[in-house]
Amino acid sequence: GAVVSQHPSRVICKSGTSVKIECRSLDFQATTMFWYRQFPKQSLMLMATSNEGSKATYEQGVEKDKFLINHASLTLSTLTVTSAHPEDSSFYICSARDGSGLDTQYFGPGTRLTVL
Amino acid sequence: AQTVTQSQPEMSVQEAETVTLSCTYDTSESNYYLFWYKQPPSRQMILVIRQEAYKQQNATENRFSVNFQKAAKSFSLKISDSQLGDTAMYFCAFGVWGTSGSRLTFGEGTQLTVNP
User: Fold this and answer.
1) Which chain B residues are closer than 8 Å to A43 by Cβ?
2) Which of the listed residues A7, A80, B38, B103 has the most CB atoms within 10 Å of its CB?
3) pLDDT tens digit string along A10-57?
4) Mutate to test the interface with A, among B32, B37, B38, B45 (most CBs of A within 10 A)
């Protein structure tokens, strides 16, 4: 149980285009999902917290107009990187909080974004 | 604000031996959770073990156990009978769940290499 999927696993796009990343909790309902960014050999940096049916809460320094987050259902959250630039190239990871029982975050496999 | 410190950037251990990874944290919260996650080369974050702060008994999951010292704000991970598949980056994380928001704060990670 407690499986989180993320799609796509890797994407290459041209500068100026937008990219959407999906995060799904497959076997549990997630009222809260989180989006992280990870640079090589570094820790995870929380970008935003996504609550089902409400606006996402962004961490300081994260541009909400650039990183659009939608959490329309209890099993799906999406991150859209708008007008992507090479500096947006990174590894993006989502997690979903299982609010029942153990109340733990489970992570997706991540998405490698490369902006040319 | 919470901080999590992992003072060992890299560690190595021989197969079948025991290794302990250190983690300290700082918080003013009284109710919280502590986690160890591993991130193998695939970059999938995997939950290793979880500890509720109100529980005095140290958590154990098969070969993985923790030494939770609440007063000292210390949360070390012991891996017994190390296996080659344990090679990964290990992250200690602090979690607070509440109506104001739920988030994990990660340490910088310890790269563990298990040698044959």
Assistant:
1) 91, 106-109
2) B38
3) 999 999 999 999 999 998 888 889 999 999 889 999 999 988 888 899
4) B45
Phi-psi region of A53 (alpha: psi -120 to 50; beta: other; left: phi over 0): left
Q: Residue B34 has what pLDDT?
A: 94
Q: Which pLDDT value is given to residue B85? A: 96
C-alpha torsion angle, residues B109, B32, B69, B87 (rounded to 10): -30
How many CA atoms does the CB half-sphere of A76 hold within 13 Å? 7
Q: Please give the Cα distance from B88 to B40 (Å, whole number).
A: 4
Mutate to test the interface with B, among A37, A43, A94, A107 (most CBs of B within 10 A): A43
The two three-digit tokens of residue A105, written as one number: 């975050």
A49 to chain B, any CB pair closer than 8 A? The answer is: yes
Q: Is the pLDDT reported for residue B76 higher than 80?
A: yes
How many residues in chain B? 116
Cβ neighbours of B86 (radius 10 Å):
20
The percentage of chain A sitting over the pLDDT mark of 90, rounded to a whole number, equals 74
Q: What is the pLDDT of residue B97?
A: 72
Nearest-angstrom CA–CA distance, B105 and B4? 7
